[in-house]
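Exercise 7b. Backbone tokens:
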């Protein structure tokens, strides 16, 4: 079985430093049932490819086997695909051959560990139980471009149809450590089998290797169940940890530093302003991204114009509170539920938020660091691509108006930044240009002559929609 990783990062030969493998050497690593070979078929400053070739011992596989299983035929231990396809054996080889890279260590160039690089992966043959849909469900939310080539059962007998084996190619700009952690977990999830006993240690490995991305993955329960061979007790244990590790709920009423009576007034005004913008946009379907406890959702719920309302948040606890406040348990469940709540992250592609007329991001972006904000931009404006997007964020210039806020301090401890009006415009203009939107900036609340308003808002409208409206008018 063969796995290749190609980098076009400049210089591409940096891949050798990150993986701790010298391009001029062929290296071997023993695993329990075979040998993993690591070598480079091409190395240059423009392009570098490393191969992991896993050579399994068929006799060793039988000796390590736990014995025949009830539904398998008598010769299953001797006639199977294990020596030829990417499976949990490949995950074990990745962990063995690239252990330093998986743990984020690079002795020669430690600064490279955190650098996202354009990487391409090819897995020559991987079995997928569930077909193409499963591969997309696993890798698309992580931002990968996917190319799949499905292989027939037998080219000499096309009437036998397609097999469950694919050649899988992935492209993404990520760190090498992230790439290896994704492959380590998701390869055996595709195969839906493990070659060794799955117990508590495997649950711990899953939490360790997936800690940076699994909690927010839309298919995290599916991944957990398959990785742990459908053992419900272990799955429940891991899911409990994943839910506990989710982001802390940000209560916007507790977020800012104005005096209590002003605080509630500004918070309510912000939500009402966003609601009015959505009404003015004639949106019928709306997604509230980072909905928290559902305060904006309650305002939207009262408006008949909104035929479909979706709230998404990374916090399970916040969604439970929102569900209670929206009284969703008391509503009649129908195939076309008007309002729905889902758990998810804005840094991974999620098809559930695509196809809406409008999206709202109310006091969300300032909670994201630069790499996650860049991911959000792509997820919202490139993939989800609603006709209208409304974004609000604090105006840093107004902070000097707060007597209780020391100079240079932000309004909330979880804020990664707070922008001036000029900085917000610079960001919004770049987004509009890059993703074919027009943007208008508006203050929220009373404006100070020098500092502006406490909250600033950007209303993005896709250009095709603007042209259509102008024609209609």
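Sequence design result:
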């Amino acid at each position: 079985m063969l796995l290749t990783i190609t980098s076009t990062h400049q210089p591409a030969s940096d891949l050798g430093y990150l993986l701790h493998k010298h391009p001029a050497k062929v290296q071997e690593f023993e695993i329990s049932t075979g040998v993993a070979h690591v070598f480079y078929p091409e190395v240059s400053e423009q392009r570098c490819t490393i191969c992991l070739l896993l050579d399994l011992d068929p006799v060793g596989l039988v000796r390590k086997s736990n014995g025949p299983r009830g539904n398998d035929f008598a010769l299953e231990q001797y006639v199977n695909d294990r020596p030829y396809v990417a499976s949990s054996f490949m995950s074990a080889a990745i962990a063995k051959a690239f252990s330093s890279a998986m743990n984020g260590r690079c002795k020669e160039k430690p600064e490279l560990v955190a650098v996202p690089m354009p990487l391409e992966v090819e897995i020559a043959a991987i079995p997928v139980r569930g077909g193409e849909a499963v591969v997309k469900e696993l890798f698309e939310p992580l931002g990968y471009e996917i190319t799949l080539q499905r292989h027939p059962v037998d080219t000499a007998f096309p009437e036998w149809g397609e097999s469950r084996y694919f050649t899988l190619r992935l492209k993404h700009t990520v760190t090498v450590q992230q790439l290896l952690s994704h492959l380590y977990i998701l390869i055996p999830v595709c195969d839906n089998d493990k070659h060794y006993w799955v117990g508590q240690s495997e649950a711990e490995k899953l939490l360790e290797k997936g800690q940076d991305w699994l909690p927010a993955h839309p298919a995290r329960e599916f991944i957990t169940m398959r990785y742990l061979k459908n053992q419900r007790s272990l799955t429940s244990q891991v899911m409990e940890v994943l839910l506990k590790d989710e982001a802390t709920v940000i209560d916007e009423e507790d977020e800012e530093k104005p005096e209590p009576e002003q605080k509630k007034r500004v918070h309510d005004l912000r939500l009402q302003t966003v609601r009015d913008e959505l009404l003015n946009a004639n949106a019928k379907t709306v997604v509230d991204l980072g909905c928290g406890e559902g305060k904006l959702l309650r305002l939207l719920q009262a408006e008949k114009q909104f035929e479909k309302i979706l709230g998404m948040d990374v916090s399970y606890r916040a969604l439970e509170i929102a569900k209670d406040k929206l009284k969703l348990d008391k509503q009649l469940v129908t195939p076309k539920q008007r309002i729905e709540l889902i758990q998810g992250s804005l840094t991974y592609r999620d098809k559930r938020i695509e196809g809406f007329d409008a999206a709202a991001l109310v006091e969300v972006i300032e909670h994201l660091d630069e790499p996650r904000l860049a991911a959000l931009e792509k997820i919202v404006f490139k993939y989800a691509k609603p006709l209208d997007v409304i974004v609000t964020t604090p105006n840093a210039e107004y902070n000097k108006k707060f007597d209780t806020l020391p100079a240079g301090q932000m309004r909330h401890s979880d804020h990664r930044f707070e922008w001036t009006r000029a900085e917000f415009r610079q960001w919004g203009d770049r987004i509009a240009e890059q993703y074919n939107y027009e943007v208008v900036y508006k203050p929220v609340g009373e404006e100070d002559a020098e500092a502006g308003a406490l909250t600033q808002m950007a209303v993005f409208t896709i250009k095709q929609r603007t042209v259509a409206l102008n024609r209609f008018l």
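Instructor comment: The chain has two domains: 2-196, 252-472. The chain has 15 helices and 14 strands.
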